[in-house]
Write a structure and sequence with these properties.
This protein is an alpha/beta fold. The chain has 8 helices and 6 strands. The longest helix is centred in the last third of the chain and has 26 residues.
Length: about 260
């Protein structure tokens, strides 16, 4: 299947997966097929129950995804692979500049889910706050209700990326994040100055630095599971986003190795 990992990609991610514990029954499932199943869900946007029969049972694939989510495995793998990509491009692990933006998406109308109404976008659903480096690689993501304030979300995503933002000198933001209080909070969190990117004229305009984070949102369009928020819990959506970025960076690393 198109979403399956290649041999080169498997060599990259396999050492980063949790090892089986030394006690108890030996692991019966092939972790490569588990990863293929998870990547199939995020790529095709199907439900877990709709996994093809040539993959492991959907319950097994889902349980691995949820278990690793609770342990923070997806975020840890994402950080290690992101550092590998940055190293290949002769960058340090911790960037000196970042860009913050948000995106509102519709939800799937599940009971007990967290959602709100974004008056600006005229949309009921959730909002994704992301902080990326100048390559467009994800540093952190926070998922909230759609009516969550921009400045609070921006501060929250910087706090989430605390370990990766030690060296930040500047953060570029859209006008929705402007304000002296927001800049002061970001500086107190350890980041440097906030630079607001403003439009110089009405209508469509390619804004400097802002296009980088918009491109990251564009990458997600290849993965149908992110086209709409189908998850009951916001933290599950965050893990899905980290999983998609892992898949994207695996492809890039494999391409680097092929050209080496």
């Amino acid at each position: 299947m198109k979403s399956d990992v290649t041999d080169e990609e498997w060599q990259i991610i396999e050492p980063l997966l949790p090892r089986a514990q030394g006690i108890g029954r030996p692991r019966q499932v092939d972790l490569r097929e588990i990863i293929n199943g998870i990547f199939y869900v995020v790529r095709e946007g199907c439900s877990w129950r709709a996994l093809p029969h040539d993959l492991p049972p959907w319950q097994t694939v889902y349980n691995y995804f949820r278990h690793w989510q609770r342990l923070g495995v997806w975020q840890k793998i994402h950080t290690k692979i992101r550092n590998q990509v940055r190293k290949r491009l002769e960058r340090t692990d911790n960037p000196t500049a970042g860009i913050i933006d948000s995106q509102s998406v519709k939800t799937a109308e599940k009971r007990k889910e967290v959602y709100g109404y974004d008056g600006g976008k005229k949309l009921k659903g959730r909002k994704r706050f992301i902080l990326v480096d100048t390559l467009g690689l994800l540093l952190a993501v926070i998922v909230t209700e759609a009516n969550f304030p921009e400045r609070l979300g921006g501060a929250a995503v910087v706090m989430e990326a605390a370990q990766a933002t030690d060296n930040l000198v500047i953060i570029w933001v859209a006008q929705g994040f402007s304000g002296e209080n927001f800049s002061r909070v970001i500086q107190q969190l350890g980041a440097a100055k906030v630079d607001v990117i403003c439009r110089s004229q009405p209508g469509f305009q390619i804004l400097p630095k802002r296009w980088i984070v918009e491109r990251t949102f564009g990458w997600w369009n290849q993965y149908r599971r992110l086209s709409k928020d189908y998850e009951l819990l916001p933290e599950t959506r965050e893990s899905m986003i980290y999983t998609v970025m892992i898949r994207l960076m695996l492809k890039r690393l494999a391409q680097f190795q092929a050209l080496a």
